[in-house]
Amino acid sequence: MFDLFPIHGGVCAPEGFSADGIAAGLKKEGKLDVAFVHSLFPAKVSALFTTNRFAAAPIRYFQGLGEVFDCNFVLINAKNANAMTGAEGIEDIEWLMERLKHRFPSLVNPVMSSTGVIGARLPKEKIEASLGEIVLGKKEGARAAQAIMTTDAFSKEVAFKVELPDGRSFCIGAMAKGAGMIDPAMATMLCFITTDADVPENRMKELLQKAVHTTFNAISVDGDTSTNDTVMLFSNKASGVYEEEAFLMALERVMHKLATDVARDGEGAKKLVAFEVSGAASEEEAIKAAKALTTSLLVKTAIFGEDPNWGRIASTIGSSGVECDENRLRISFGEVLVYDRGAILFDKTIEEKAASVMRQESFKIHCDLGIGRGKFTAYGCDLGYEYVKINADYRT
Amino acid sequence: MFDLFPIHGGVCAPEGFSADGIAAGLKKEGKLDVAFVHSLFPAKVSALFTTNRFAAAPIRYFQGLGEVFDCNFVLINAKNANAMTGAEGIEDIEWLMERLKHRFPSLVNPVMSSTGVIGARLPKEKIEASLGEIVLGKKEGARAAQAIMTTDAFSKEVAFKVELPDGRSFCIGAMAKGAGMIDPAMATMLCFITTDADVPENRMKELLQKAVHTTFNAISVDGDTSTNDTVMLFSNKASGVYEEEAFLMALERVMHKLATDVARDGEGAKKLVAFEVSGAASEEEAIKAAKALTTSLLVKTAIFGEDPNWGRIASTIGSSGVECDENRLRISFGEVLVYDRGAILFDKTIEEKAASVMRQESFKIHCDLGIGRGKFTAYGCDLGYEYVKINADYRT
Predict the structure, then answer these.
(1) pLDDT by residue (tens digit) across B182-219?
(2) Which of A40, A84, B84, B93 could potentially form a cystine with A119 if both were Cys, beta carbons 3.0 to 4.6 Å apart?
(3) Which helix (H) or strand (E) holds B30?
(4) pLDDT tens digits for range A90-120
(5) pLDDT band at B221, cuts 50/70/90?
């Protein structure tokens, strides 16, 4: 066993990592809009990216360098996704990275990550002009987390110290952005994780894949998959300590915290809902049903209206394509059972109890399909007027 | 070849069909809420139903009678879906149908169709008490179309006379409802088609399947599939005339008109958009991409905002899982090309032209994937404040 302690510092918490946010004039009013994460020690990087076929230029640039490679620096910009920009998008990154390496000769294979407008060239000159403000050793994780925000209502960071039974320890830190856009682009999710654990480089990608399955792949704000979605893990081995079970658990905790923060901070959203599906024929079927619930417009608007509309829950499961049977299905809001294998328990009393569950900021809706042992929990949010406003009225 | 003339009368236009709407007290203020369609001559019925696993009781009742069978009457009610009601839901229908046959001995295998709240018992006594108002011979198609409306902003009916080159003719008529609900239930689509063409009974289901593919299966209001979706075809052979090509064409025209009316009348929607996808690797891929566009929240809110946000269109195609390549893709709003195989044509002038296309009530967005010959057109609508209001605020 091991102990896990929340600590301050975000991506700068692990030994040897620095980060900061600077203002390059991409956002208005001198707001922070460019961030970097740097390791003072040699580090390895591995990442998982969007499945969108039109993966943005920074993703294709990263993939050109390999799966896991030496890298001690990532430059992140808001306001421009550098997506649908073709070969020029890559050239713009190469141009910037050359200037960055010229200015900071200690950088090894610097990479980029972007979020913002799709289909416009990267404002590389503006970014280049701001590189002079970068001080590599700055430990300003909170400013970095702030710089990468777009329509995020709050910045998202987390860090843990992991103590093994023999007293040795390592740290893991991370920051993320989600929410969406204020400009016409897709809602992009970016997450940067740092650790001083001595992670074997051939394990980095697989561990990321394991952890993303129940965290970032389990959330949905609007069901769309951006051209820029990225989860990036930097490991500099500075602690010299590693224990896989402990590291994976800590990685999952970090990613779970940030993923639920991203869902909670869905554009205009006020509520975080955990859709627990159990009793499915398989885990795949549980995933299918749980994700159908997170993306159903009728379910999302019912959550916004704090309406325990179990008929919409049932119908969404029925149309999700999974094996189900109305005489085996059970539906609960929190601990309030409203439908029990063919019996409609929903009366005025139960309705009021279920509605009071939904008035909370965070709650669960549980569907037991009663078929098999497959289970999965997906996280979603409500959809209200603010969502429409953010996504339709950005011009005004 | 043949000629097709629009005529009045809706479902009552074909010879020997009658219909009416009555008020059973299910809706408030004495509004019409129960409808029937009847054939004075012996008729056959065939239907296509929802793929939702929790198909409503009236659907399971119908399926218990066969695929194509003798039937000269359908009773339709609004305000209650009779879904998630188990064996009792079927018993309620049997009870009502017995009373109906007792009152009108000429009825053969009467069936039901319902739309409204999921998970509440059918108010069968109220409906039974109103059966006395039914006059079998009434030709009030418009009142029937009105009775089946829920949140529909307008009633939907259509009829054509089909004239063959030799002067013989037959008629086809139909009515539909869509839009959604004012009560907490799924947005249900119901469509009833009548014809006096001499359709061979063994062709009825296949012809319905062909016609539904490019019509009702090509529309999306909210991406949810209701427990009650139904397309029902009655044929009484009264004209003695049939020519398959002409009949199929007329059937498709009727269903296309009603399906686009349903999409146009999506809850709170103001615009009908045809998403034309061409150049896909296969028709399946074209369907996948076109449907992804109709259900993308970011695309739907951009349409509401009249924002020619081609980046969202591209990204939705990229995440739809179809084969695509940014150097082959072309995107147009109406006739305005905004992205051409890697070249971003979008400047202030093009943006204004594309925005003016989007200010129309009805327009197309065309995506040529440039990969193969697969094509498909799906129909969708915008998503604005009204949608949220209808679906979240029904209590207030």
Answers:
(1) 333 345 789 999 999 999 999 999 999 999 999 998 88
(2) A84
(3) none
(4) 999 999 999 999 999 999 999 999 998 888 8
(5) low
Does residue A212 contact residue A29 with C-beta atoms inside 8 Å? Answer: no
pLDDT in tens, A28-37: 989 999 999 9
Burial of B13 (0-12, 13-18, 19+ CB in 10 A): buried
Q: Any chain A CB within 8 A of the CB of B355? A: no
- In A356-389, which positions are buried (b, 16+ CB within 10 angstroms) versus exposed (e)? ebbeeeebbbbbbbebeebbbbbbbbbbbebbbb
Of A330-334, B148-152, B392-396, the one with minimum mean pLDDT is B392-396
CB pair distance less than 8 Å for A319 and B384: no
Rg (CA), chain B: 22
Kindly give the residue spans of alpha helices, DSSP state H, lying in chain B.
57-65, 86-103, 124-130, 141-147, 204-213, 244-264, 283-295, 297-304, 310-318, 348-358, 385-392
Q: Quick one: closest CA in A to B267, which residue? A: A298
CA distances from A163 to A5, A100, A168, A237, B57 (A): 8, 37, 6, 15, 58
Structure tokens at B84: 């998630």
Spatial separation of the C-alpha atoms in residues B369 and B331, rounded to whole Å: 9
The interface residues of chain B toward chain A in range 176-195, judged by CB-CB distance below 8 A, are 184-187
- Measured between alpha carbons, how far is B318 from B330 in angstroms, rounded to an integer? 13
**Helix or strand run (H / E) with residue A133:** none
Q: Token pair for residue B64? A: 């218990």
- Per residue in B50-66, pLDDT (tens digit) is 888 999 999 999 999 99
Contact check, Cβ <8 Å, A318/B346: no
Asked if A155 and A178 touch (Cβ cutoff 8 Å), the reply is: no
| DSSP percent split of chain A into helix, strand, coil, nearest 5 | 35, 25, 40
Among residues B304, B324, B305, the alpha carbon closest in space to that of B314 is found at B324
Q: Is A227 annotated as a binding residue?
A: no
How far CA A347 is from CA of A80, B280, B300, in Å, comes to: 51, 50, 36
Amino acid B312: pLDDT: 87
At A116 the three-state DSSP class reads coil
Q: For residues B296 and B292, what is the distance between their CA atoms, to the nearest angstrom?
A: 6
Alpha-carbon span A384 to A96, nearest angstrom: 40
State how far the alpha carbon of B150 is from the alpha carbons of A222, B59, B145, B178, B183, in Å.
27, 19, 11, 8, 9
SS3 A332: strand
Tokens 């992205």 correspond to what residue?
A: B339
User: Which domains, ranges and CATH numbers included, belong to chain B?
Assistant: 3-264 (3.60.70.12), 272-392 (3.10.20.340)
Inter-chain CB proximity A307 and B392 less than 8 Å: yes
Residues A325-349 have a mean pLDDT of 94
The number of C-beta contacts closer than 8 angstroms across A and B is: 204
Burial class of residue B203, CB neighbours in 10 A (0-12, 13-18, 19+): middle
Q: Give A356's contacts (C-beta < 8 A, 6+ positions apart).
A: none
Active-site annotation holds for B188: yes
Of the residues B188, B215, B227, B260, which is catalytic?
A: B188
CB B221 within 8 A of CB B183: no
- Any known ligand binding at A364? no
Q: Please count the CA atoms within 13 angstroms of the CA of B78 that sit on its side-chain side.
A: 33
* pLDDT at B326 (0 to 100): 93
**Window 50-89 of B, Cβ < 8 Å to A:** 50-55, 81, 83-86
What pLDDT band is residue A268 in, cutting at 50, 70 and 90?
confident
Contacts of A389 in chain B (CB under 8 A): 385
Half-sphere exposure of B260 (CA within 13 A, CB side): 18
State mean pLDDT over B307-312: 89
Residue B187: per-residue pLDDT: 59
User: Does residue A395 have a pLDDT over 70?
Assistant: no
